[in-house]
Design goal:
The protein contains 14 helices and 16 strands. It is an alpha/beta fold and 433 residues long. Strand 10, helix 7 and strand 11 form a beta-alpha-beta unit. Helix 5 crosses helix 13 and helix 8 runs parallel beside helix 11. The site of nicotinamide-adenine-dinucleotide has 34 residues, from helix 1, helix 6, strand 10 and helix 11. The site of one zinc ion (ZN) has 9 residues, from helix 2.
Length: 433
């Protein structure tokens, strides 16, 4: 089968690989109809999440059809349509049973302390092959697959694999409650989805910070207030917009590949910290293989964190879902301490959130589709990766159409890229689930 394969930092290829087989009783094989490229995948190719094995299939977002199940999987059969949550969890240990699926005690071959397991990541993330392929092996499939009703098509469901659960989780980490003023740092796919989830969780005002005009425009179409960090100092802008107080909550949806502003007052203000950021960048990415303007490592790993701590109000809270891998050692801890901030962070417990998000989509409360700005065919996956990596205008979220039959149901997908109507503009301020 064809799959997107990691060969080295700066080197991914579409490669012919063997089809996966059932290895354990709780495995399933899923024939993938739609996959997607995530900002997390970029960290592996840029070098900011080291430890990948050559030959690893990339990707942790997929919708597909169950092809085969192991004898332990009693709740799915071949032919069932499913979405695959990005992290892998046993469903049995005390962590899983408390909803902390990303901290499962059993999924990692390295034992309970070895960390979160997800598809298509470094060896430290369990060494599992990913889902940008024609077929995927899903361990603990009785827990790791979520069934899809026919009314939720691939274009909607693919965003429920990782992006919306992460956004929902991030908004919860930030402790958003009714009427709060929320800043979303980063307007990539995750940040865009945070706008919708924060609103569903009751946010009163949402301010989005990024440096890319097209992504800020998508945010504006969701009726977020936007701040361009290449035009204004984002901390000052947020303070101005909040009567000098700052926002109640921040969601950091950027992570380790944060960039410095290229111009404007914020760029001027940071000039003295050039050496500090260079040092942080080299610590974050010991190996870098940029190719012109592709696969360039973020040049200010702690900047989104620094801005988050500064733009939040005293005694406010920050939910961090942008990824910071273990080698990252810089966080403005003292500033956060002095402001009595609450900091929560981590890998999404996908399996906890995918089912309720599927029902929100099925019931029409949430339409994630507008976030997909590009559909690429498998044969064009590498070109699509490069355009997404360079953040070319319009390349906000790339779905991979692996199998034509699954891609977009008739009549659906027309709102792709419009960014509008993601939550029908409503502030429903209801329960958290
Ligand atoms: N915690 C989890 O479980 C989880 C799950 C999925 C994704 N993620 C992470 O979320 C992050 C975002 O993912 P994505 O797919 O949206 O990626 P992305 O790379 O497309 O988006 C990042 C956005 O941040 C913006 N940005 C860069 N520097 C900035 C700065 N200094 N201030 C504000 N914005 C800045 C970029 O312009 C871009 O729009 C990544 O780190 C990804 O690994 C985490
Ligand atoms: Zn992801
Ligand atoms: Zn578990």
């Amino acid at each position: 089968m064809k799959a997107v394969v990691w060969h080295a930092v700066g080197d991914i290829r579409l490669t012919d690989v063997p089809e996966p087989k059932i290895q354990e009783p709780y495995d399933a094989i899923v024939r993938i109809t739609t996959s997607a490229i995530c900002g997390t995948d970029l960290h592996f190719v840029r070098g900011t999440m080291p430890g990948m094995r050559e030959g690893r299939i990339l990707g942790h977002e997929a919708v597909g059809v169950v092809e085969e199940v192991g004898p332990g999987v009693r709740n799915f059969r071949p032919g069932d349509r499913v979405v695959v949550p990005s992290t892998v969890a046993c469903g049995t240990c005390s962590y899983c049973r408390a909803g902390y699926y990303a901290q499962c005690d059993n999924a990692h071959p390295g034992g309970p302390q070895a960390g979160t397991v997800f598809f298509g990541g470094p060896e430290a993330a369990g060494g599992l092959d990913g889902l940008q392929a024609e077929y995927g092996r899903v361990p603990y499939a009785h827990v790791g697959l979520v069934p899809l009703p026919d009314t939720v098509d691939d274009a909607q469901a693919i965003l429920l694999s990782d992006i919306y659960p992460t956004a929902w989780f991030g908004a919860e980490l930030a402790e958003i409650s009714g009427g709060d003023t929320v800043a979303v740092v980063g307007a990539g796919p995750v940040g865009q989805a945070v706008i919708a989830c924060a609103r569903l969780q009751g946010a009163g005002r949402i301010i989005v910070v990024d440096g890319l005009a097209d992504r800020l425009e998508l945010a504006r179409r969701q009726h977020a207030e936007t701040v361009d960090f290449n035009a204004e100092d984002p901390v000052e802008a947020v303070r101005d917009l909040t009567g000098g107080i700052g926002v109640d909550r921040v969601v950091d949806a950027v992570g380790v590949d944060a960039q410095r502003p290229s111009h404007g007052p914020a760029a001027d203000a940071l000039r003295e910290q050039t050496e500090q950021f260079d040092h942080e960048r080299d610590e974050a990415a010991p190996e870098q293989k940029p190719d012109g303007d592709t696969w360039v490592v973020g040049d200010a790993p702690s900047l989104a964190a620094r801005w988050s701590v500064r733009m939040v109000a005293k005694a406010g809270s920050i939910g961090t879902v942008g990824v910071y891998p273990p080698q990252v050692q810089h966080y403005p801890f003292g500033e956060a301490f002095m402001k009595n901030l609450t900091l929560k962070m981590g890998n999404c417990n996908h399996r906890r959130h995918v089912p309720h998000l599927v029902s929100k989509v099925a019931s029409g409360r949430l339409d994630p589709t507008p976030l997909i700005t590009h559909w690429a065919q498998t044969q064009d996956a590498i070109t699509a990766y490069e355009a997404f990596d360079r953040r070319e205008p319009g390349w906000t979220k790339v779905a991979l159409s692996v199998d034509e039959r699954g891609a977009v149901a008739p009549g659906m997908g027309e709102s792709a890229g419009t960014g509008s109507a993601t939550t029908a503009g409503t502030n429903t301020a209801t329960t958290n689930e």
